[in-house]
User: Fold this.
Amino acid sequence: MASVNAGPTEAQAEAGALEALGRKWWLLLLFGVVTIVVGIFCVMQPVDAVETLSWLFAVWLIVTGIFELVRAFGSQISGGMRALLIITGALSLVLGFVALRSFWDDDVVLAGWILAIFIGISFLFRGFSILFLGIEGKGQAGRGWNIFAGIVIIIGGMIILTAPATIIALAWVVGIWLIVMGIFEIITSFMVRKAVTA
Assistant:
């Protein structure tokens, strides 16, 4: 009787995706640490942070865009998730470079509102990206954290877009949300590493 070569099962595909992500756990850790450092600076120095924040956030957008593109092309994920990561990564890069040019303006108030728009939009894209990653990652380490973090970040983006009360308040809000995002990234990195090495 002729044998039939069966393709990889769904479990094998998920295991391969987890292993591929596990090899890059340190990228998640590094990204989380950098995000927390930026967040703490915003909370501790809200006044001085406004002008500096515009530059730091632009750089953060560029780093995030590169990170998303690396994940898109370096992980064994579904076509839909890959497309989403490519779109969010490319948009983050574009917003980052546009922000670097926009914040050369000396109008601090205008810069604050522009910053709020950029932050709110990028948080929404980032939140949906993490949320869908968690929804699709059935059985993978950190799935629940990804879903929760995605929802929290989406809410944060909506708040920033609709009510950036003052520039100082904006710096506080941004700092707090960056710290939350960084914590989730660090937790996820260790959970992924533990799942792969177990």
In short: DSSP finds seven helices and no strands in the chain.
